[in-house]
Amino acid sequence: MNTSFAVIIPVYNGGELYKQLLASLPKQTLQPSCVLVMDSGSTDGSLEASEAFGATVVRGTTSEFNHGGTRWRAVKHLPKPVEVVLYLTQDAVPAHDEAFERMIARFDEPRLGGCFGRQLPRMGAAPAEAFARNVNYSDSSYRVDYRGKSARNFRDTLFSNSFSAYRVAALEDINGFPEDVILGEDVLANVAMLEKGWITEYVADAMVRHSHDYTLREEFRRYFDIGVMHRRAQDILGSYGRPTGKGKEYALAEIKHMQPHGLMEAARSVLRSGAKLVAYKLGLMEHKLPLSFKRRISMHHRFWK
User: Fold this and answer.
1) Could you tell me the residue ranges of all domains in the chain?
2) Mean pLDDT of 81-101
3) What dotted CATH number matches 5-209?
């Protein structure tokens, strides 16, 4: 395996999980040529931790951060060219020492444009949090290849930059990540690669621990933003169908899963599912909503200028 790669981590006040991530990197059986950190003005010691680790650090501000733009700009800051860039979020900690090796090995396939790994729930995760990760990230790998095919499936758009890797040539082929998006730059890059004839993969045996214990309000904000992204990218995602059927299936499965954990947990699950649906629908009609209202209910409020 001779594929050269670099690790890129956007960071803003990463806290203890980010320190755990840094501590895990030297344990990986396959080492990158560079660890590059895009720091957006951390004030909690994350910047100093990055420098002490020996990472190449590019300093920025929170106002400059953009999910797609920051990740693509990072490639231009690498001290030397590489074939593959591997992205991690600041709270995604490798679950085993071969996580990078198993991911990078997939690029022996010359048509592979990008891949993403499995996310396990963090240790001590709440039942709903663990359920989300175990359902959305299965133990079965799969490959998506649309060359010569006309049928599209919404499931095939799924991707995650919390733990992902891209062939630099594939990113260049699609002109990098989209910048004017509230989130979902990974999904849109995935679709762009597929439409260009690249293969993408989900690699189930390359794993990180990464999950969130969102409050009801945070879930609402996040799903509003997802709806905004889907509406604004409808010209790109339209041929892949809608996620609503799967959303209903997931909600019913979660409610059933939560019943053994008590009536209160099951009730919270019902409320959570309802809030996500309402928020997503609002996101789909964001063009009809006042800017001040969108800024107030969005998780990524800096997106709204």
Assistant:
1) 5-209, 216-303
2) 97
3) 3.90.550.10
